[in-house]
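Sanity check

After download, print the first record. It should look like this:
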Amino acid sequence: MREDLLLFNSIVEELLKQEQENPVSIPIKAKELYNKLDLSLADDPCINEEFTKVLKDLVSKTPRTASNRFFNQLWGGRNSKAVLGDLLAVMLNTSMATYKVAGPQIGIEKEIIAQICKLIGYNNNSDGTFPVGGSMGNFMALIMARDKKDLEIRNNGLSKKMIAYTSSESHYSNAKNMSFSGLGRHNLHYINCNEKGEMIPKNLEEKIKEDIANGFVPFYVNATAGTTVLGAFDPVKELSNICKKYKIWLHVDGAYQGAVIFSSKYKHLLEGIENSDSFSFNAHKMLGTPLTCSILLIKDKKHLFNSFNNTADYLYQTDLDDYNLGKTSFQCGRRNDALKFWTLWKAVGTNGLANIVEHLFETSKIARNYVRNNSNYTLYSFNNSLSVCFNYKDYDAIDLCTKLYESQKLLVGYGSFKGEAFVRLVTINAENKETDILNFFNILEDFVRKNENLIRKKK
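Expected structure tokens:
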């Protein structure tokens, strides 16, 4: 073990150096992957020198998501205190299903959940869990909403056509979850959004009334706190009033930007969150913990037990149900995703988490202002979002992003809204400073200037 830890340290040192010197790794086309890297598994062992060489080669050719040139996805950067917690979780190798196995690690998860419930205004009857990702958090909320509407579904299956609602800009997991649950993709009704990408409450209520008139059973509304493209916030307060009126479960999917709850300056973006039935967010996005670190909060903890508890005497053998977390989670052998968030929170405090959130919004403001003040750019996104969406001159956004990636200049993605494609700059790396944001634009412009004949124009 000590020898392998020394090897680990040497590989990490080399990785950190590469991130500084070559922030974007050499991309490998999928069809060339097995020719470029030795990924083979064989009957005979790989000797030490060869094993070390293969590992270093693998790491060096993996995309560098912590570098200051990575703006592609809804995570980025690397917080050292959170990494420390994740490494310790690997070494401890506990399962968070039972107190007997995890001991004080259970207390860490429960403390995080209790503090967040307090932050969002849930009462003392609330609870939560750490699902394996934002998609799973949405799935668990959907199942609880279904069971609250008709608890006998757990045993007898569906007997009525049940309808769920989400915005046309929401995460794709909503459709998958309707399929997984047996509720059916066609029973997920998409609600139109305004020009900012926010769900329109009036359209939601009209659709609910129509479905009730047709004899269907509306049971679930998924609101989004940070849509995946524009980073828009659905109006939770207005939606909660509608859900209360028609006795429908309201879940707020804050996977992307739900961490605004830690900032008094930006918490207003989730006004009305205390009236939701469930809320989820990913600490591995805005707060920079290693993947994955997703938290699901429930206003009334009985729904977690109703939907996910199952007798297992061979497993739950000591202590109280509240400390045997497998009774309120989807899976049993669940790794400890709480420790990395706890080490971060413990190290910087709630005020430190607020500083991280507010710094991210400051960097997004820097990027938006640059786009607004430069006539060569067209801005498509709005304030209070970490997604800065734009087009540069008349170049095709998809081709521009692809060529920037292939040339090892920038790793940035693209998106579209109402038929318009654009570059989507995600300002979610808390390690980035103003110089890193401005450098992004300098690199893009310099690349276009040198390669303008190779980049497609918009049709």
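If your output differs, re-run the checksum step. Summary of this record's structure: Residues 2-65 form one domain.
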